[in-house]
Amino acid sequence: MRNAWKCAGLAAQICGLIMLTPLVSGAAVPRGLSVGGQDISGLEIEEAEKKLQEYVASMAGQKVILDVAGSPVETDAAALGLVLAENQAVAGAVQEYETGNMIERYVKQKDLEMSPVDLELSLEIPPAGVKEYVESACAGYAVEAVDASIVRENGSFVVTLSRDGTAVDAEATGEALREAVLEAARSGLKEPVTVTAVMKTVPPARTTEMLSAIQDVLGTYSTDFSSSSESRAANLQVGAGKINGTVLMPGETLSGYACMQPFTTANGYATAAAYENGQVVDSVGGGVCQIATTLYNAALLAELEITERENHSMIVTYVPPSRDAAIAGTYKDIKITNPYDTPVYVEAGTSGRTLTFTIYGKESRPANRTVEYVSETLGTTPPPKAISQYDGSLAPGAKVKVQASHTGRKSRLWKCVRVDGVEVERTLLHTDTYEASPAVYRVGPAAAQASGSVTDAVGAAEAPDEEERLKVPDALEQPAISGAAEGIEHETD
After folding, report:
1. Which residues contact 449 (CB under 8 A, 6 or more apart)?
2. What is the pLDDT of residues 153-183, one digit of tens each?
3. What does the angle CA 479 – CA 485 – CA 488 come to, to the nearest 5 degrees?
4. pTM surpassing 0.85?
């Protein structure tokens, strides 16, 4: 039985006895019991714990050297957070020798005096703190990865070389540093502790191989702006240039608004016509909705994911109904997302009076599969009676058109997929409603002498001619036609 008591007691101690409810103040540590080489025999528990705390404090200045790719980074055990663990088993060890009847306790204590026991010193360095230290101390030793870049020049793509970066693996290095310092502290080592940082390779986000896969035309679309003013044409060129060359990695999203804003003269834009509350107004950046629309149609043909798209308040004339996309502050935007496993490249620009978007990538769709987008008009609403506004600055009988009329329209867009010429899928993408609006004229003095706005039956009679000029084709196969007047697409309603 004596041997059984001895084995049971020592096993419980060496395995790291759990912290039990502390004994009452004044309980003494049995003779022959030490912790980490520190003799605590005969001390009260509080005294023993204080002695161990002082011993750990004496090791706080232990010098630690972290070798980061040949460069030493120095610190000490205290800075890494070396502390005496809360589960130090002093009270537990005393409790072990205080259990049993008087004879059992006497035998255990005699055995301890004959065969002293040195418990392992329970030390701790919080892992999170060491990792944080490594991240901070080694931040300057990282070598940034270099992304590849891609540009299209003279009809071909030019891709630069990417390069891997390197960085300290904070988690692995922190763990190695923590274990080395704990081991040195337990053994009472006085010499500096040296640990080699664990390095890891940091790949670039865009590798040469990734971007080199961009070779095929996934979708291209053009719109005409031959009737636009010089300022509107300039806005198309400026806005398209801000999107041109955008690369979307798998899952990335392009926002037309984010690319082109702010719509200010300082950002290169001019004042041109735009829609606002069912009227045509002058606005800086007027016309950029034609950019959003052309991008939208190229993205449809490339079968990118359309994350966000809104139609105009009134019909536009450079694409069929429901093929348009508006830009208005942050509440109307065109956003496209790359759904493929390979990157895509967005090319945008103007040539003459034509705006073109082309989306390149790696073609993965079957060659016998084709996609078509069909606009269907569900109904129309004639424009309201024309409005004449008196303008005393005009010559008597003069009449100046301010705004063309717009027929209201309800339409929807279908995606039609064919395989070997046979339709296998027809999907409704969206249904849109466009407001009707009257023609507006300024008229000079005539029979009416009072100033203000009046409704003019003559103006209303001219509205059908306006509408005839504003008609747009419903079928996909028809070419895009030019905008009316100033091509008023910069939606601000």
Report:
1. none
2. 999 999 999 999 999 999 999 999 989 988 8
3. 80
4. no
